[in-house]
């Protein structure tokens, strides 16, 4: 089997010749990770991954969020003490919202766009770019670059994967977390009205990319952003489950696959995630980082989805290659007989990883490749 065949067999919960290995970084650069193809140290990991690991070319589409009548201004200024301030102003009908980040001698300070219920109510009124025709025009503008990357991607290594976002990701990223958690108690209906409004945009955007057959896989990352301990399980069921279920169903209706991403304390909401029916779930984290072991997760999910995980990213910094091989052996033993893809908990974001980290990645790949064949 090549990497692509191994990937889709695992996602279909069919037999594979060996456990697939996914290192999370895409073929083309993405903002959250180092460009492993060109980085002088990470390139060794990229070279080792070719032919042994699956590769998902995770892409975002930079489509404007607000409708044209909303004015967004981004400004960078340097304050007298050397602090750099990056400021975003969102204006509509004579009112505005402001966020900023200041980085300088005193450290980093952040003001979020939404820091009160009044801010949230104004945000709820802002026109969002959700019209299907308008979204289609924006997508057409981006298609030449995307299709160039798709043509460059070696398909036998895996698949193109779109990360288009979801409603809760939009709200979480713009909100002061203390207030965000309080809103789940004081104004949940207002939050849900915002999420429903945003969902229209995402449903139309997903429709457009699916109709154009742009990717075989879709990546959903928002579930962890409205879950315990930040908010209650009931809030998770109101703010996440209905919206992501609709998007997952839409992807499946077009014959494509979904990987859902979730860090942290997943055990309480794992039955709800199972009901949402993604094809795979990344990642399962045991204590002390999370609260669920792989055996516990398999017991809850009954092999109805493919689990992806899990060596903690920090272990790549601190382990020896011998310890890394032992950790891989333990994970594979726990996953034996179950639908599973071996991966780190996060992708490579260190611009200066150090030799030890690179050696641990190489040990991870080698152990996964050799021991993964013995687990089938």
Structure report:
- By secondary structure, the chain is of the alpha/beta class.
- It has helices at residues 3-11, 42-49, 117-125, 132-152, 167-174, 177-186, 188-211, 233-239, 241-253, 270-276, 294-301, 313-318, 321-335, 355-374, and strands at 55-59, 71-78, 84-92, 95-104, 107-111, 158-162, 217-220, 257-261, 280-282, 306-311, 340-344.
- The protein has two domains: 3-65 and 128-374, TIM Barrel (Alpha-Beta Barrel), CATH 3.20.20; 69-113, no CATH class.
- 44% of the residues lie in helices and 17% in strands.
- Strands 1-6-7-8-9-10-11 form a seven-stranded parallel β-sheet. Strands 2-3-4-5 form a four-stranded antiparallel β-sheet.
- The longest helix has 24 residues, at 188-211.
- The chain is globular, with a radius of gyration of 21 Å.
- It starts with a helix and ends with a helix.
Task: Summarize the SSE layout with pairings.
Blueprint: H1 3-11, H2 42-49, E1 55-59, E2 71-78, E3 84-92, E4 95-104, E5 107-111, H3 117-125, H4 132-152, E6 158-162, H5 167-174, H6 177-186, H7 188-211, E7 217-220, H8 233-239, H9 241-253, E8 257-261, H10 270-276, E9 280-282, H11 294-301, E10 306-311, H12 313-318, H13 321-335, E11 340-344, H14 355-374
Parallel strand pairs: 1-6, 6-7, 7-8, 8-9, 9-10, 10-11
Antiparallel strand pairs: 2-3, 3-4, 4-5
